[in-house]
Write a structure and sequence with these properties.
Distance between the termini: 20 Å
Radius of gyration: 18 Å
Helix content: 25-40%
Structural class: alpha+beta
Largest sheet: 4 strands, antiparallel
Number of helices: 9
CATH class: Alpha Beta
Number of domains: 1
Number of strands: 8
CATH topology: Beta-lactamase
Order of helices and strands: HHHHHHEEHHEEEEEEH
Length: 280
């Protein structure tokens, strides 16, 4: 959505996120530099992995009651521990803030923005934040490492950090569009996402706009993965070979190595960092 809104001229990548929030909210800055939308997308904002003021009513569904006032309270009280842009560190609160800010700019909810700008143009009819009654019947129950069923997480202010639920078929539509196997209006935005990169600090791994890369033996895959309490996921694609992999799992057991090995079968390699969001 950020890349699409930048292509449309609605925002720029260097727009400070502060400009998209109410004046009463004070986004942390450091040494005269403000956090930009691109900083949030590339996880170099200096914000921590999760907000420091999470006190859930239900520990089994920790983000369900983390609402906008709590997000604004965190932003206005948090002090950055390092310079913006200094270091890659995956931040759920950062990417959640990005989704929240873009939705405010568009004047609609995060779910409506995703549906209008991404899901409908790609024909992804089975990807959503709010499940229909029919979809609730098809939701795979999540399980922990002991294979005991657990609650499916819900999100409020941080929906951009993991609120979407999807299917393999819909995710394959998304990857086909990224591989340019289908002609969609999001092609310029998808190319824009892969036009910028920086190192994550791990050899052979870069961060693009939201995507990660894994390079080895002359091949490079573009990927993302993550987890909520009872689910794991991996999506990856090779732009050169026009191949893609989707792995969805309804347990908390890790699937990243399965996804990486499937994406580059001649070059299996463990991934060394684990972003904390999931598509279920």
């Amino acid at each position: 959505m950020l890349a699409d809104m930048a292509v449309r001229g609605e925002v720029t990548l260097d727009t400070p996120v502060q400009k998209l929030l109410p004046d009463s909210v004070k986004v942390p800055s450091r040494n005269g530099k403000q956090i930009t939308l691109l900083d949030l997308s590339m996880h170099v904002s200096g914000l921590p992995r999760n907000p420091t003021n999470i006190h859930p009513a239900d520990d089994a569904n920790p983000f369900a009651d983390y609402d906008t006032p709590k997000l604004y309270e965190f932003l206005s009280s948090y002090t950055l521990k390092r310079d913006i842009g200094e270091k890659y560190e995956y931040s759920n609160v950062g990417v959640g803030l990005l989704g929240h800010a873009l939705a405010r700019k568009a004047g609609m909810s995060y779910e409506a923005l995703v549906r209008t700008r991404v899901l409908q143009p790609l024909g992804m009819k089975d990807t959503t934040v709010t499940l229909s009654d029919e979809q609730k019947k098809r939701l795979a129950t999540g399980h922990n490492g002991a294979l005991v069923s657990v609650k499916s997480w819900d999100f409020d202010a941080l929906q951009g950090a993991g609120a979407l639920r999807s299917t393999v078929n819909d995710m394959l539509k998304f990857l086909a569009a990224n591989l340019e196997l289908t002609n969609t209006p999001l092609k310029p935005a998808m190319l824009r996402m892969r036009s910028l990169r920086r190192s994550t600090g791990t050899p052979g791994s870069d961060i693009l706009m939201a995507w990660h890369t894994l390079s080895r033996d002359g091949s490079e895959i573009v990927w993302h993965a993550g987890a909520t309490s009872g689910y794991r996921s991996f999506v990856g694609f090779d732009p050169a070979k026009k191949t893609a992999v989707v792995v969805l799992c309804n347990t908390s057991l890790d699937v990243e190595d399965i996804g990486a090995t499937s994406s580059t079968p001649s070059s299996p390699q463990q991934l060394s960092h684990r972003p904390g969001i999931v598509l279920k």
